[in-house]
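Subject: Sanity check before I submit

Could someone independently write out the structure tokens for this chain? I want to compare against mine line by line before I put it in a report. The sequence has 402 residues.
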Amino acid sequence: MKALQIVKRGSLSLLAAGLLLTAGNPAQAQDAVAGKKVFESNCVACHSIDAKLVGPALKDVHKRRGDEWIVKFISNSQELVKAGDKDAVALYEQFNKIPMPSFAGTLSEDDIKNVIAYIKEASDAPAQAVAETPATPVAGDPGTTQTAATDVAFADLPPVFLFTLALAALVLLLVVAIIVTLVRLFVPMMGDSIYDEDFRESWAGRLLFLLRGDTSVVTGKAKDVIHSNHDFDGIQEYDNDLPPWWKYMFYVSIVFAIGYMLHFHVFNTGALMAQEYELEMEQAAILAAKNAEDPNAVTNYEVLTAAAALESGKTLFLQNCAACHGQEAQGSVGPNLTDEYWLHGGDVNDIFKTVKFGVPAKGMVPWQGKLTKDQILEVSSYILSLQGSNPANAKEPQGEKM
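---
Independent answer below. Compare away.
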């Protein structure tokens, strides 16, 4: 009986230990789940686990800083910066002195610890390789940008270019034919006189002996003649020829410079750099007008005034924009959106483009990959509906008055 009681007690102890162990993991998982919700509501606008956005990537940040430091930094990063914390100051300097919003009044310490739990879980999760499937362009779809390299057939080249190319080839063939004919006619007639110094120094002699393998026409000859009065400290200077190829290139550059001056500055038959730039900009503008993702493309959106659209815009604003602009758009890291001053234009189309394409140089991330066109228009319209609301603790005006 005693043995049976011992076995029962041991079984109950093992069961209790097992329940305690299994109860611990769900608690941690629940913390991570809650932290994910807090992260997506407050942090995702500026942070990602694996990529650097407005702020640094957060993968394994708990290993680099420690939980206690992270809690203090999220609560009020500027307090750490002012206190001279080297890690906080380094981050502040690295990210163009863009301060992280203080969450001391909006998130509890438990919320922040839940966010840390989520970061730990996301950091330890194995990276998933996602195979990118190239999008198949749909013929006739105006929203599809098709970029294809087009080959130009030789026969389709400009007639002037074809004529110039044919004329150059004909002249080259005539020159070669004349040289071959002269060599075949006159070399046998000259006999050993081709070796005379006078003939070898002539253009015909140099060309003939170059064809026969004498490279001195190109490299020049070493005269081994010392310059008189050019002896200093045992160093002597020889009066050798410059390599003919070097002199010929110099002569060709002179001829080219004269032709260049006549072509571009006298007859004005060629486009200078400023003209080429203007022409290329015109061509780029034509191509950009066909591209729906061009920040300079003209848009004609109208402000949405329906209550449902504005309520949807408010929800999107609180989820994605409030972390940097404040819950009432009063301004925090980002500017105040309720006054009459704008950094990038205060029209609905200007706001739409700012939200869609962002201003990465100033910490504003592009939202075109996260929000649809309709959602961006709803957010833009909601922002305009806040004009003149005068929220408490509004940030000072920035930009130009509209």
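---
OP: Matches mine. For the report I'm noting this point. The beta strands are 226-232, 235-238, 341-342, 400-401.
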